[in-house]
Design brief:
The protein has nine helices and 16 strands. The chain is of the alpha+beta class. The protein folds into two domains: 180 residues, PAS domain (Beta-Lactamase), CATH 3.30.450.20; 191 residues, 2-Layer Sandwich (Heat Shock Protein 90), CATH 3.30.565. It has a five-stranded antiparallel sheet with strand order 6-5-9-8-7. Strands 11-13-14-16-15 form a five-stranded mixed sheet. Strands 1, 2, 3 and 4 form a four-stranded antiparallel sheet that branches. The protein is rod-shaped. The two termini are 49 Å apart.
Length: 432
């Protein structure tokens, strides 16, 4: 940041870097000058301020070998000392020997009336910054080697100004090149393309580059998850059509008149819509697995009683873990309607569970009065059961074909599902 508003406005309106006069740094507690660089980014023009301490130039002035009696000082546009040889003054002080701001610039000698007496001096001005370089010596100190001293002084001033100009040019190009890199990365992030962090000489810009890479990774992970959820939504929507058709047929078998048929069919449709209410009702206390199974099977349950058996000890699932078994039961119940125990009027379903100190054993067993043809076909439902349940819950998943039906076995570690062992995060998103 800079307190020089006028210089900031001039830099913001132009295209070249602007160097301010001295300002007293609120944080560094020393006199500094600012290099202001305008940069055009996608969101508009920005201004980068690079703070430099004034004492950077002290070494350059003291390194110049001047004849005895000579003094030099570098002044800003307000007449304050940026750097000077010993005895002239400190950085930030007004230049006191004479009014240098009222004197004209000249490559040759000037007669100066100073507080210490008559002197000869040279005053040069930087075209880049407007700063003044003042070199002077008492008339009595100038003798035969005057010409040599003048040439050395002029050469030193030219070299110093050249170094300043070169440093400003190098710094502006360096910073400009660094800023353009994150600007390109920001446009890539906006377009959904991957972003890789790059090293930059300015640490703040390097941090921005790393943040853009992290944002790119988060965005790509979110896009992958959205694609999977959309695929799951399409799959469930397709299954719902089959399930609703099957429910309509099953309801029609037990109905004696149109009103009773409508009432029974409406009950099943509403049960299908209520299957996700459990996750919202119980919150962080956890969802009972038995209740979750009941709610997911209820929309598919046959009208005839005694065809579904659910038993086992009470097991609570944390909010995150409940989503996966719920999806698995939904897939299994859907398949039971399409191919298994709920397809006809004689199939039977048994869902049992057991647990010890470390694992939960969940068994889904469908018993049929007809032969079931074994198939290794892996549709999306099978992928959900084998891959997603196994990966999300670190579970062992096994499918077993019997002569009279189908069996699924799930061995799930309690560490990943018990709310007391692995509580769900406070910001857990709502389940579907």
């Amino acid at each position: 940041m800079t307190n020089d508003i006028a210089s900031s406005e001039r830099a913001f309106a132009g295209v070249e870097p602007v160097v301010t006069d001295l300002v007293f740094g609120a944080v560094s507690r020393q006199w500094v000058y600012n290099i202001l660089l305008p940069v055009d980014l996608a969101e508009g023009r920005k201004l980068i301020a690079l703070n430099q301490p004034a004492n950077n130039f002290a070494g350059a002035l003291s390194a110049n070998s001047l004849p005895r009696g000579w003094n030099t000082a570098l002044l800003d546009n307000e007449g304050r000392i940026i750097a000077a040889t010993p005895g002239v003054g400190e950085a930030g002080e007004e230049f006191a020997p004479f009014n240098a701001m009222a004197r004209a610039f000249s490559p040759g000698w000037q007669h100066l009336d100073t507080k210490q007496g008559a002197a000869l001096g040279v005053i040069q001005r930087s075209v880049t910054t407007g700063w003044r370089l003042v070199a002077r010596a008492p008339v009595s100190s100038i003798s035969q080697p005057l010409l040599i001293a003048v040439l050395m002084l002029i050469a030193g001033g030219i070299v110093l100004l050249g170094l300043i100009s070169a440093a400003l040019l190098w710094g502006s190009k360096r910073i400009g090149s660094s800023v353009r890199g994150p600007a390109r990365d920001a446009r890539r992030l906006g377009a959904g393309e991957p972003v890789v962090a790059k090293p930059y000489p300015v640490s703040e810009i390097a941090e921005v580059s790393e943040a853009l890479e992290q944002a790119s990774e988060v965005r790509r992970a979110a896009e992958r998850e959205v694609r999977f959820l959309l695929r799951e939504l399409a799959h469930r929507s397709k299954n719902q059509m089959t399930v609703i058709a099957a429910m309509a047929k099953q309801t029609a078998r037990g109905a004696t008149d149109l009103p009773s048929y409508v009432q029974a069919f409406e009950r099943r449709i509403l049960g299908l819509a209520r299957s996700t209410d459990l996750l919202l009702t119980h919150g962080t206390a956890g969802v009972l697995l038995g209740e979750l199974i009941e709610h997911h099977i209820e929309p598919f349950r046959p009208v005839a009683s005694g065809r579904v058996h659910i038993a086992g000890p009470a097991v609570r699932l944390n909010g995150r873990a409940a989503q996966t078994p719920g999806m698995a039961v939904h897939e299994l119940a859907t398949n039971a309607v399409k191919y298994g125990a709920f397809l006809d009027d004689e199939g039977h379903l048994s869902v049992t569970r057991q647990k010890d100190d470390e694992r939960l054993e969940l068994v889904w067993r469908e018993t049929l009065m007809r032969a079931l043809e074994a198939s290794e076909r892996s549709g999306f439902g099978t992928t959900v059961l084998k891959s997603m349940v196994g990966r999300a819950l670190d579970a062992d998943v096994e499918r077993i074909y019997h002569t009279d039906g189908l069996e699924w076995r799930f061995a799930i570690p309690l560490l990943g599902i018990d709310p007391a062992l692995a509580p769900a995060p406070a910001d857990e998103p709502d389940s579907e």
